[in-house]
Amino acid sequence: xxxxxxxxxxxxRALVGSARSAGERIALVPxxxxxxxxxRALVAHAASVADAVIVSIFVNPLQFxxxxxxxxYPRTLEADAVSLADSGVLAxxxxxxxxxxxxxxxxxxxxxxxxxxxYEGASRPGHFDGMxxxxxxxxxxxxxxxxxxxxxxAQQAHIVRRMVADLNLPIEIDVVPTVRExxxxxxxxxxxxxxxxxxxxxxxxSEALGAVEASAASGLGEALxxxxxxxxxxxxxxxxxxxxxxxKTFLPVSDGYRGEAAVLVAAQVGSTRLIDNTTITL
Length: 282
Ligand code: PAF
Known about the structure:
This is Pantothenate synthetase. Beta-alanine binds at residue 63. It comes from Orlajensenia flava. By secondary structure, the protein is of the alpha/beta class. It folds into two domains: 4-176, Rossmann fold (3-Layer(aba) Sandwich), CATH 3.40.50.620; 191-281, 2-Layer Sandwich (Pantoate--beta-alanine Ligase, Chain: A,domain 2), CATH 3.30.1300.10. It contains eleven helices and nine strands. The strands form two sheets. The protein has a six-stranded parallel beta sheet, with helices on both faces. β5 (146-150), α8 (154-166) and β6 (172-176) form a beta-alpha-beta unit. α7 crosses α8 (154-166) and α10 (203-214) packs antiparallel against α11. The structure holds pantoate. Residues 30-32, 60, 63, 131, 134-135, 153, 156 line the site of pantoate (PAF).
């Protein structure tokens, strides 16, 4: 069965309230829609750890730094609902912009702090504050026991975890591994914008991560050089950043760092921005 779509706050609160009264554990999967297998992996995880799963679908204007990017972001609510048929989802929470922001953009923002200005935050100013603000609103509206995020947006997952810890929010954050195409490309709602040639070029991201991992034993500088070399061949692909960070702080690792680290990469592929990441041991 296709899950019901709810767009008003009173109905959402009533539904969540009755699930809670029935003693059910509630999971929230926050998304912006255009659902793909990566999202369905989040939903499958949510259904395995909770009794009632709410998927939110809301393209959040606050987290877009460019109007053109917001305008072209895919909106496919009906198809998304059909794709969640028989997935165990109780309801799709799909509010309008007016419902989420009745007085226009919020005066109050949740700040993602210093890490929110790095990497994705440096290229998309205000993105993480806008993302955290809507996630805080979604958490307050649904009041889930657990919320599920994708590892593909590793910096986002780190920042959300940090907010939950810093503000003592009683919510468990689960992060689900990235789903990839057979050739390594990480699934993303933005992949649909790639031409056939750009789609080939987009493999530079996962190839760069593989190259950093393969040469990690040669030291940080060498590994990053090998990773950056993966971007040499593709005219349509422009590397934005390739960086190795400490998983606990998300700050760049210092020379001589030993242990697990996250490798983050972002590139502009034609008019589409893509990100990816992996974990290595230095
Ligand atoms: O990852 C996303 O799709 C969005 O950033 C999120 C978490 C749904 C907030 O708008």
